[in-house]
Every structure is written in structure tokens, then in C-alpha cells.
Amino acid sequence: MKYILSLLTLFFISLLVSAQTAEEYYSNGMVKFEQQEYNLAITEFTKAIELNKNYAEAFCKRGITKHELQDFQGAKGDIQDSSCMMLQLMKIIQKPLN
């Protein structure tokens, strides 16, 4: 029983140590983009978005990357999503504090 608990503990610790943040995935995506490894960049931006559905910068950069691959429809969708998020953020910022 102790052996199983030890194994489970090690397993969960390894998950915590290897877990990346949305910002780390975004940063990895930027590196891949600069290296012109566009498919890998899209994968990293997508992982960032999966962790943070409101990550406007990741949507925008994924859209730009899709445009580089001539996926114009996919690029348009991502750019529109990021623009919508930015507009919502601007509305929140401009609201007077009561």
C-alpha cells in the first residue's frame, strides 16, 4: 500500500513540475514562429489558448501564423477573436469606478 501511495505521489509531483503555463506556451510559440516553424508555433499558441481562453495575444499571434501558412479563413477567425477580446477589455478599462 505504501508503495502504491509513493508511486501516486511521484506521479502527481511530476505532473506539477512538468505543467507549463499559458505564458510559457506562448513564449515557446514565439520562438517557433521566429524559427519559421509555423505548425509547431500554432500548436504552442493553441496550448496557451486552451489554458487561458481569454489570451488575446495568443489568438492574435496564432492568426498571424495561420496567415503565414495561407490559412486565411483560420487567420481571420483568430484575429476576430483577439480583436473582440481587446474591445471587451477596453470597455472594462474605460468604465468609471463607482
Number of helices: 5
Whole-number count of domains = 1
Distance between the termini: 57 Å
The low-confidence parts are none
Which CATH class is shown? Mainly Alpha
Shape: flat
* Estimated radius of gyration: 18 Å
Rounded mean pLDDT is 83
Q: At CATH's second level, what is the architecture?
A: Alpha Horseshoe
Annotated CATH homologous superfamily: Tetratricopeptide repeat domain
Order of helices and strands: HHHHH
Question: Helix/strand/pairing class, anyone?
Answer: mainly alpha
Task: Briefly characterize the structure.
The chain is mainly alpha-helical and 98 residues long. The protein has helices spanning 2-18, 22-34, 38-51, 56-68, 72-94.
SSE layout:
Elements: H1 2-18, H2 22-34, H3 38-51, H4 56-68, H5 72-94
